[in-house]
Amino acid sequence: MAITEFDQFFTRLSASDEQRIAYTNLLRTLHTPPTLKYIEAVLKNFRLTFSDGWLEDIGRSDEFVSLVHHSQAEANSLLSNLEQLSQYKQFKRHQTKTKLSQLFHGDLEKNPYYPLHYLLNRDNADFYRWLRQVLFILPFLVKDKVRDEERLKTYEPVTLGLFFRQLTEDVVAIAWLKQKNCGQCKNLRAFVGWLYEYRAYYRKYYRLSNSDLAKNGAKESKDPIQNAIAIYHQISTCIRILEIPLGHEKKRRASGRRSVKRFDRDSVISHGVTALENNILVQVETLPGEQDNLLFSILQGQLDDEHVDAGEEIFEQQQAEVYLFAEHEPLESYIAAFHGRRLSKSVMRRLERQHQYLYTDHHALTNSQIFQLLNWCQYPPQTEDAAEAALVAITSFFTGYVSDRLIQTTVNLSTPQFPKLDLARSVMALPQYQVPYAESMSEVATNKIEGLQLPMPALLADAFTQYTDGSHYLWAEHGQPLRHSQFSHSTDTLKNYIYDTTGLVISVQQIANTLFLRACAMFGSACATLMFNRPAPGSQARLYYTSLPAQLLQTRYQKLVETVLHDAGFGAEKAFHKAVLPQLIELGCRQAPSLDDYNNLLNGLSKKLQGLRKNRLSSDWVQFHNHYTAYCIVAQGLLTGLRPTHQGFIPLRDILLAAQVAVVRDKDSDDEYHTRTIPLHPLAIRIAEAYHTHVQAMLGRLHRIGLLKQWQAAQGPEPFFFTNAGAIANGSIVKTYPLSIMAFKPSLLRKEVAAYFSGPPNGNRKLLRSWFEKKSVPTFCIDALLGHGNLGETIWHQHNTLSFEDVRLTLMPHLDDLVKLLEIKALKGLHT
C-alpha cells in the first residue's frame, strides 16, 4: 500500500488503493494540508471553477481536458465519501471567519494555493475563477521543463500564493477590479495582461516615478512610498513567474555570495538603461527566414498625454537609444549582459547597406531557377520521396513559408492550423497578420479561423492532386499531408535532396522568400506583410498605418503569381484554375477610418457652421470659431497627412507659395530626419488662406472682449481654440463667462469633432496611407508625403535621386479624387 501524507484521513474512508492514489494526486495539486481543513469547501469551489468557461490553454489541449475531467470526477467521488463520515462538519466552510490569514494561519507558505482554492469572493468571482484555473494548470505547464529558466523554483508558488491572497484585501486592487470586466478571459496570456494593467494602475495610483522604481523598497517600512515600491516589484515578480509557461525564460541568478555593488539598481543608469520594462519596441532588422542572420532592434519609446490624445502609436515616437540582439539571444539575458550598450553607427550603416544595395538573388530565386524548380515539381520521378519533396518545395514557394513551418499544412478547414488547402475550390488560406495594437478589430476575432483566403495556383493544386494516389499515402491523420514528411522537419534535407535531384544550388529560404520579396517590390512592404503574414524589415509605420481589404490582397496575389510565372517562362494557363470568391474583411491597422467616417465629419461640421453663421452678432461666433478651426484642421490634414501632435495645421506663414510646399517638423527627434518637405495640394493652400483671413477678422473681436493680449502672449497661435466656451446656466449661454485661448491640442480637436467622428485625430494619416496603397501609388511617394521612409530613403537625402516634382505629379491626381469623394472645400470664416 502506498504511503501518503493523507493516510490518517484515508483510514476513515472506505477507499481502494487506486482511489487513494487518485485522491492524493488531486489533493497535492490543490496544495492541500495533511489536516484537510475545510476540504469540502475547496472541492466545491474546484467543481464550480470548471463548470463554466475554460481558458484556451486548457480547452485546446487533449491532455488538459482529460486532466480536468478526471480531476472533477475524483473531486465528486471524494465529496461523496466525505458526506458519509460522522465528522463531516469539520471539513465544511467556516461559518463566521472569512479572513484567509486567520483561517489558514501557518499554512500560507506551506500550502500557498490552498487558501485561494478555498476563497469565495462573490464581488469578483470571475477573476478568481480564472485565477484558480491558472493555478491548477500551472504545475502541468512546466512539469517537463528541465532548465531552471523554464520551470518554477520552490519559492515561486509561495510568492504567487501570498501575492494573490493579499490582492483580496488591498484597497487599490479592489478598486482596480471594480473597473475590470472579468467576464471573459481567453487564455493565460490574457490573464497576465490583466496583471500588467493592475501594475500600471498601481503605479499611477501611488505616482511612482522611474527613480522610485530604481529602488527596492520595503514592505515593512512605515513610509507608504517605500511600501508601494516593494509591492510594485512583487507584482512584476509574479508577472515574470506566470510568463514562464508562455515561453519567457526567467533569469536565475547564480548561487553564492552576491556583490551588492554589482547588482545595485542605481548602477544600471550609468550604463544607459533607465526603464526597459514598459513601452519597448522590438523590430525585425533583417529578412525573416534567414535564420543565421536574423537580427532585431529594441527601442525604448515614450508617449505623453498629447500623443495619446492624437491617436499616435508608440513606434511613432522612438527615442535615440537603439539596441541590437540576435534571435537566439533572450532579451533579458542580453540586457543583463550588456546593460543597454548602444548600437554603433557602423553597424547601423551595415544594416542600411544590406537593405538597399544587396543583390536580390542572394535572398530569392532567379527566373531560371524558378523555372527549373517548378518544372521539376510538376514532373519529379515517381517515387514517394520525390513526391514529398516536390509538394513541400512547391507549397513553400507559393505560401512564402519555410519548409519547417509547413508541418501544419492541412486540408481540414475547421482546424486553426495554417496554411489551409481547399483543393475542391482551389483556395488556400494563410493566417491573418496580427498587427500590434490591432487586437481590438472585430474582423480579426471573427475571421481568425478562416484566415486570408487566396486563390490557389494551378501548379500547387495539380501537384497535390497528382502526387496523392488512391491509397493517399501522403495524407497523415487529421488531414495534414506534410506533418510527418522528412522534408518538412529539416530544411537541410530538402536543400540537399533538390541539389542531388536537379543540380540546383538553392536554399529553402530562397524558395520561401521569392514571392514575398517580389510582392514587396510590386506592392510595397505593408501589402506583402498582410498578404503572406510575414513582417518585412524597414519602416514599420508603413504597416501600422495601412488597412487593406482582403479582396484587394486576393487580386494582387493573383497578379503576383501570374507575373512571376510569366517572367519564369510559364504560360498564362499555368496560373490558376478558378477565381476565388471575394472575402469581405479588412486587414491592417487599428481604428482605420473609412471615407464614410470623414464624409460624416466634414458634412456635420459644415452644417453646424451654416447654422452658426446666421447669427454672427451673438456669442455663437465663439462656437463658430471653434468649429471652423476644427473643420480647417481636418480638411487640410486630409490633403497633407500632417501629424496632429504639435500644431496640427499648416498656417499660411509656413507655406512657400511660389513652390507650393511646406516645411514642417511634426515629430520629436534629435536630428533633422523628421523635418519634412510636403508637396501641397492647391486646396490645402486655399484652406490656409481662408483660415488666415478668418483669424485677422477675429483679432478685432478678441480686442473687444479683452483677449487680444492673451493671444499675443501665447505667441499668436494659428490655429487656436476658445476654451470654456458655451457654458450653460439656466438653459441659456452665459455671455459673460470668462473665456481663455489655447493653442492647438489633439484633445481639444477631439472634443470639437466628438459629435461626428469617434476615431483618433491621426486617422487622416491612416486614411491617406490606405487610400494610396489601394491605388497602387509607389511606396516611396507615400513615404515622402507622410514621412514614413527609412533613414537614407527620404527625398532630401544626399544620395537620393528622386525628383520632388515627380512625387507631386504622382500624388496629386489621387488627392483630386479624394477631394471629389469627400467634397472637401475651403469654407469662408468670419470677416471684419
Write the layout of secondary structure elements.
Layout: H1 7-10, H2 17-29, H3 39-49, H4 56-59, H5 62-83, H6 100-103, H7 114-118, H8 125-141, H9 155-167, H10 171-179, H11 188-206, H12 210-213, H13 224-242, H14 266-269, E1 280-284, E2 295-301, H15 305-310, E3 318-326, H16 331-338, H17 345-357, H18 367-378, H19 384-399, E4 420-422, E5 427-430, H20 442-446, E6 452-455, H21 458-466, H22 486-489, H23 491-502, H24 508-523, H25 525-532, H26 541-544, E7 547-549, H27 550-568, E8 586-588, H28 595-613, H29 620-640, E9 655-656, E10 661-665, E11 675-679, H30 682-704, H31 708-713, E12 720-723, E13 728-729, E14 732-733, E15 740-743, H32 746-753, H33 763-774, H34 779-786, H35 804-822
Antiparallel strand pairs: 1-2, 2-3, 4-5, 5-6, 7-8, 9-10, 10-11, 12-15, 13-14
Helix pairs in contact: 2-5, 3-5, 9-13, 11-13, 18-19, 18-27, 19-21, 19-24, 24-25, 24-27, 28-29, 29-30, 29-33, 34-35
Describe this structure in words.
The protein is mainly α and 832 residues long. The protein has four domains: 14-246, no CATH class; 270-357, no CATH class; 362-588; 595-822, hpI Integrase, Chain A. Helices cover 48% and strands 7% of the residues. The chain contains 35 helices and 15 strands. The strands form six sheets. Strands 1-2-3 form a three-stranded antiparallel β-sheet, with no helix packed on it. Strand 4 (420-422) and strand 5 (427-430) form a beta hairpin. Helix 29 packs parallel to helix 33 (763-774). The protein is flat, with a radius of gyration of 32 Å. The chain starts with 6 loop residues before the first helix and ends in a 10-residue tail after the last helix. Mean pLDDT is 78; it is low at 254-278, 333-347, 356-360, 437-446 and 727-737.
